Amino acid sequence: MTTLRIAALGPLCDTDAVRKAQATLALDLTLPVGHDEVLTPSKPIPGRPLKPELIAHSLLKPKPLSTVEGRALLVHSVAHIELNAIDLALDVVWRFPGLPDAFYTDWMRIAQEEAKHFMLLREHLRSLGYDYGDFPAHNGLWEMAERTQDDVLARIGIVPRTLEARGLDASPGVKNKLIGAGDHQAGQILDIILEEEIGHVAAGNRWYRYLCHERGLDPFSTYARLIDQYDAPKLRPPFNMAARRLAGFDEAELAALR
Predict the structure, then answer these.
(1) Between the CA atoms of 191, 130, 159 and 145, what dihedral angle is there, to the nearest 10 degrees?
(2) In this predicted model, what pLDDT tens digit does every residue of 138-196 receive, in sequence order?
(3) Domains of the chain as residue ranges with CATH
């Protein structure tokens, strides 16, 4: 019998970006979860398209937003993040057994919302005369997934609560840049993404605290240890405090950012 966790491997291993997103959206969340299954993928993870070329983050250079190419490049970078976010959510579903069923349905729902975001951005990119894969991108998000592949606490503590939370901080600035350059459609798409990403980070906070409780760990001090242990990016202002509060960060965590 196919389970939700087995089904997650299909789109995760798919090497076509659009097909990956479409297959994720088509997944049936009513399947039995199979929470105790120990799975072994038969294909490389994640499935990657031939393009975009993946290069070091430091080599990626923006172009003026006064040009269509410059706006497309920025939209492409967000689309690349969303495609990686599909893989990250699906990877959590298959990789870590033994958690409550709600854990897996939460991350599968998140994968589907990330797929929706990717398709919205890809459609807009095509309206600008470009497509996903036309610009180079970086592999930073998946590199962190690989570093945290042996510990679900580290994965949840760092990916949604650190890397995706940085997206909450960055979103208003990116939106304002695109709207300022006349791309109001991109601004509307980013509004949709921000609203749903708040829920994704909230799920990260909820399950991180659950895992800390299960292991008898203090969430605050454990987070600081995980950041050092896994060499996670250090957070820098500006911070979107309103979005972070909605996503479930407590006042002690917000004060530490300051």
Answers:
(1) 160
(2) 999 999 999 999 999 999 999 999 999 999 999 999 999 999 999 999 999 999 999 99
(3) 4-257 (1.20.1260)
DSSP states along 151-204: -HHHHHHHIIIIIIHHHHHHHHHHHHHHHHTT-HHHHHHHHHHHHHHHHHHHHH
Contact between 252 and 205 under an 8 Å Cβ cutoff? The reply is no
Confidence tier at 234 by pLDDT (50, 70, 90): confident
In sequence order, the 6+-apart residues with CB closer than 8 A to the CB of 254 are 239, 241, 244, 245
Q: What is the rounded distance in angstroms from the CA atom of residue 248 to the CA atom of residue 204?
A: 9
* pLDDT, position 1: 73
How does DSSP assign 50-114, residue by residue? Answer: S-SPB--GGG-----TTSHHHHHHHHHHHHHHHHHHHHHHHHHHHH--SS-HHHHHHHHHHHHHH
CB–CB of 84/118 below 8 Å? Answer: no
